[in-house]
Design goal:
The N and C termini lie far apart (54 Å). The protein is built from 21 helices and nine strands. Helix content is 62%, strand content 11%. The longest helix is centred in the middle third of the chain and has 33 residues. The strands form two sheets. It has a five-stranded antiparallel sheet, with no helix packed on it. The chain has a four-stranded antiparallel sheet with strand order 1-9-8-7, covered by helices on one side. By secondary structure, it is an alpha+beta fold. Strand 5 and strand 6 form a beta hairpin. Helix 6 crosses helix 7, helix 17 crosses helix 18 and helix 19 runs antiparallel to helix 20.
Length: 663
């Protein structure tokens, strides 16, 4: 009965989404406020229905109801509770239901917080969201029904993929989908602007919080996925330029460009046409990621589905939405009025350069990701495009971008003073130069470019807060006055500083891990001892254990750190009988200065085992930097000027049918 309730709720949601996608547009055409208002109430009801459906599927997992195909194929009665819950979205059907739940959640949020939007814009945005919702509900009902039944019901389930039986599954997909799907709102705003034929600074003001929200969640999702792969897969890496990793990175790059472009549009009413295009392309890249994961064209630990029919359906969705959006863009964009003019040396100019670098980086990742697939489809020839290609194309674009970033906030709008900005950044440049020189003199091994990378990281961190120091008049006013001025700065200024500094911290982590890591591979038995980066590692014990749904071979080590502290660390090899699948669980001692990382290979006939030990300096700065970036986004989002429900002027309240002017 629960399964049928969940299925029926999806059918009702599909019917209402067809209403949401058509009736409000009819109201816009006729100027009928009642028909336009229907969009908001319909969005709320659709969210409630999809929430009921998702709750039904979760209940089936908690009850281990193996009469449902999805539960049978991805659960087990002995599986721990946390993995029964997270296992709901650890498969294609359940993850698509989560995708749709987040999609309708954003639609309901627009209905809830968009009360101050002009009625025509609000109705059109929600109607476009209705098109997306209806299409994906049709997809899940036609090709990916999570409530399909088995008769007779099996006694036991097949268990969840062991690689997914990890707390990372509870956080990574929801965060990633909140980012992916959140960009659908920017897409809907762009299409609504093209339909209505008007876009101005107020439009950018309304769309920026949604873009920023999606960007924050996508940043956290990518960071969580990287950390999960780092400690779970047992290969010691944090990024491999895997095509599915790239599929999440591309919309992040495009979304970052969109966020900066929207700032220019809000402040100067410039880059209107470019901002609209970025909004369309960012969501297009989110759909591309969905296609790559679910079409079967890729074989990856990230991939959920291998059914070509599903891939064709998603490809049709991409063609319909992206092709239709670009056709509408080609038709309407030339008629949109352009905004203000600015000098090349200005804050707008640096943001345009920022967009140029980010877009080119995104294009390079796109080519490297899709070229092997296109070549195989045309010639049946299989090639691999891996880290060497991406490192060679990405780094030359990233380095000048990192040099540019601190200059942007230092320059004035419309026309800036480059010499003045450079003078205010002298301290940052000096600290970066000294840091790079010290690294070059103290660390004799590693790539010669590593000190340059370290200097870039310091330049980004100190440069980010130099703008705060300049505005607070640090060293020019008494400390109490400077602190009061700093506290009085808008949260968006602090958010920008933290986001840019987070990039610098991430760069420091990447440089330390890639340039100065050390590695040992060998066979060890009880009592054997090795030394790596001033750490003494002794294998103390090999034993067998049994978990709730797996068998475990646990190897324990005693580690003596450079300061003399002795710490235990354990790594293991697990075997899941239901899936007949082994996994490797890495052991780690995590410190801000670096990680000692131990993973196991194959056991030997003499009772010993292959051991791989890494020491990874500064690796945790990669994820700390990502968190600081997300914190910067949260600070900016909390700024009153970016609140979705910020009041409009009386003139805007009297306006009908058009986006309100910026206040």
């Amino acid at each position: 009965m629960i399964a049928e309730l969940g299925h029926y709720a999806l059918v009702l949601a599909l019917a209402l989404s067809l209403v949401q996608s058509t009736v409000p547009l009819l109201g816009v055409r006729r100027g009928d406020a009642r028909l336009m208002a229907l969009a908001g109430s319909t969005s709320t009801v659709i969210f409630a229905l999809v929430l009921v459906s998702f709750g039904a599927l979760t209940t089936l997992y908690l009850q281990s109801d193996f009469s449902v195909v999805n539960v049978f194929e991805n659960s087990h009665s002995a599986k721990p509770l946390i993995y029964k819950i997270s296992g709901v979205w650890g498969n294609h059907e359940g993850s698509m239901l989560l995708w749709i739940l987040i999609l309708v959640l954003f639609s309901a949020l627009v209905a809830l917080f968009g009360a101050n939007l002009p009625a025509t814009l609000r109705a059109t945005v929600l109607a476009v969201q209705g098109w997306i919702i209806a299409t994906f509900l049709l997809f899940i009902l036609a090709t990916s029904n999570p409530f399909a039944r088995l008769d007779p019901a099996p006694f036991e389930g097949r268990d969840l993929n062991p690689l997914l039986q990890d707390p990372g599954l509870a956080a990574h997909p929801p965060l990633l989908y909140l980012g992916y799907v959140g960009f659908s709102i920017a897409f809907s705003f762009a299409i609504a602007a093209l339909i209505l034929g008007r876009i101005d600074a107020a439009w950018a003001r309304w769309v920026r919080p949604w873009v920023l929200t999606a960007w924050i969640f996508l940043t956290l999702g990518i960071s969580m996925g990287s950390y999960w792969a780092y400690y779970e897969l047992g290969w010691g890496g944090w990024w491999f330029w895997d095509p599915v990793e790239n599929a999440s990175f591309m919309p992040w790059l495009a979304g970052t460009a969109l966020l900066h472009s929207a700032i220019v549009m809000e402040k100067r009413e410039a880059l209107k046409v470019w901002t609209l295009l970025l909004a369309i392309l960012t969501f297009a890249l989110s759909l591309l990621g969905t296609f790559l994961v679910r079409s079967g064209v890729l074989t990856s630990v990230h991939a959920f589905a291998t059914d070509p029919a599903r891939g064709v359906f998603i490809l049709a969705i991409m063609v319909a939405f992206v092709g239709g959006a670009l056709a509408l863009y080609a038709w309407r964009a030339p008629s949109l009025k352009q905004g203000g003019i600015f000098a090349p040396i200005s804050r707008e100019g640096t943001l345009v350069l920022n967009n140029l670098f980010l877009s080119t980086m995104c294009a390079a990742v796109l080519v490297g990701t899709l070229y092997p697939l296109a070549l195989e489809a045309v010639t049946d020839e299989k090639i691999s495009v891996g880290p060497p290609f991406f490192n060679a194309t990405f780094a030359p674009l990233a380095i000048p971008l990192f040099v540019l970033i601190p200059f942007g906030p230092m320059l004035a709008w419309k026309r800036g003073d480059l010499n003045g900005a450079a003078q205010r950044l002298l301290a940052a440049a000096a600290i970066a130069a000294v840091g790079g020189a010290m690294a070059a003199s103290l660390v004799q091994k590693g790539p010669w470019l590593a000190p340059v990378g370290l200097a870039l990281g310091l330049w980004l961190i100190v440069g980010a807060f130099s703008e705060i120091a300049s505005r607070a008049k640090v060293l020019q006013e008494p400390l109490s006055v400077a602190w009061a001025r700093a506290k009085g700065l808008p949260r968006s200024a602090w958010g920008t500083a933290f986001a840019h500094a987070g990039v610098g911290v991430l760069v420091l982590g990447v440089v330390g891990e890639t340039a100065w890591k050390t590695e040992f591979i060998g066979v060890m038995g009880p009592g054997d001892r090795i030394e790596i980066s001033d750490h003494a590692v002794t294998l103390t014990d090999i034993r067998a254990e049994r978990g709730p749904n797996f068998q475990d071979q646990v190897v324990t080590f005693s580690v003596v750190r450079p300061n003399g502290a002795r710490l235990p660390v354990s790594a293991s090899k697990r075997f899941y009988p239901a899936r007949q699948m082994p996994t490797t669980e890495a052991g780690m001692i995590e410190r801000l200065s670096g990680d000692l990382y131990v993973t196991l290979g194959e056991p030997q006939d003499d009772g010993k085992i292959v051991v791989r030990v890494f020491y990874k300096p500064q690796v945790n700065l990669i994820w700390i930097g990502s968190l600081i970036m997300a914190l910067g986004g949260v600070l900016s989002l909390s700024d009153r000027r970016l609140r979705v429900g910020a009041p409009r002027s009386a003139k805007a309240h009297r306006a009908t049918g058009h986006v309100a002017p910026a206040e």
